[in-house]
Amino acid sequence: SSQDFIASSGDGNGGDGVVIMPSNGKHDSVVIFMHGLGDTAMGWASSMPELGLTTTKFVLPTAEERPISLNGGSSMPGWFDIFGLDQDSREDEAGFSESTRRIVSIIERESTQGVPLSKIAVCGFSQGGAMALHISLRYKADPTRTGDGQSSLAACAALSAWLPFRHEYPAALSGDAVDLPVLQCHGDEDMVVRYDWGRGSYDSLVRPKAEKSPPQDLGLGLRYAEWKEYRGMGHSACSEEITDLSLFLRAAFEK
């Protein structure tokens, strides 16, 4: 229950957000969760205790405000600018790079405070899920900035999201990411990040490569990727998805 956790403001690394800790102060794993466009860490904070991970610390950063082209240049919390909502839209390389540096800095900080990379999961919803895939699939540990001998993250979960910069794969894939457990979840009635966009990311890239694949299947060769979809769900979350995420993270942390 939520009284078993204590929330504090900030992302634990000098930025805005929320950190949710087990109330006894002890944790052996970390979930970093990135919200969607125009939201803040508070939009997802109450869902974290629902995952039932009683020895996990949750770090929910809030994105910086930035002008969003898709919304007529209005400023709102965003990990990167969005020019359009389909796989052929222009992508904001500078925004991705800037936000990636921030999240990697959080990962490194947590990994030097006693939780190894193999117990740190990077997750997110919508734009935050695109960030989670972008960071996790490219992440190469810098041994001078993480705990000794650590190389690969625990897991990546992307909810109602897509894989950005898909044309850069498979070259952009980090060697450490091949064994990364990846969970992609999507509602089949999503009208914002279309189901076909999310599913297309999974089918052409994330899905474990079949022996007889069509030539357009770049298949990254990930060993532990899975897809879950929810009937009737739009661009949101549901309790079944939270349960699936909980089981996925539990298994990844127990590896």
Task: Provide a compact summary of the structure.
The chain has 255 residues and is of the alpha/beta class. The protein has helices at 42-45, 93-111, 127-138, 195-206, 239-254; strands at 5-9, 17-22, 29-34, 56-61, 65-68, 74-77, 120-125, 155-159, 182-187, 225-230.
How would you describe this structure in keywords?
255 residues, alpha/beta, 8-stranded mixed beta sheet, two-stranded antiparallel sheet, 5 helices, 21% strand
The helix/strand series, from N terminus to C terminus, equals EEEHEEEHEHEEHEH
Count up the helices: 5
Poorly predicted tracts of residues: none
Q: Terminal Cα separation, in Å?
A: 25 Å
Q: What share of residues are in beta strands?
A: 15-25%
* Secondary-structure-derived class: alpha/beta
Total E-strand runs: 10
- Order of strands across the main sheet: 1-2-4-3-7-8-9-10
Radius of gyration: 17 Å
Average pLDDT for all residues: 91
Major β-sheet, in short? Answer: 8 strands, mixed
**Global morphology:** globular
Give the helix proportion (percent range): 10-25%
